[in-house]
Amino acid sequence: MSAPSRAYRYVGPHHVIAAVQTANSGAPIRTPADFADWAAAQSAGELKEPLTFVIGTDGALLLAPRRSEHAACAGGGLVLSAGEVSFASEAGRWIVTEVSNQSTGYCPDVASWPAVAQALDQAALDHPDYFTHPVLFRRCPGCHRHNIVREGHFVCVFCDADLPRRWNVDTNVRDPGTP
Hints:
globular; about 180 residues; alpha+beta; 5-stranded antiparallel beta sheet
């Protein structure tokens, strides 16, 4: 497994992380059998909606129902990526149809894609070659609020300050291999 460039810590609302238990609520999906067992326990309606996912620092895919908080899915810990993922059954196999880095709790950079691809490959889940719905998160250097960059407009929606072109949401990120 190649070393990821960064692990993301939770940067969302404090009341959300305060409510998280230390155990992951996300189901670890490391093999096709893990996914098949997990999917069999879900309702058909649940499987039709995008699901919450995180990639743990061990590289494992963790899944939870859509309305789950990413922080709860990860047990409040660091992640290599986070977002939403949709699956479909095709020719008797589960495949990923859509995947995004949409997580306002972790605000992962689009550069986290390789960790997602590696976790999906490990679970033998066919997937796109990139985030199908990439989200650009930036922290405003003026008011320090988190923004989603839309249509290439790098301007803070709260104070009109220019936003940086590079990901800057959390200055305290670290390599997951360091203590």
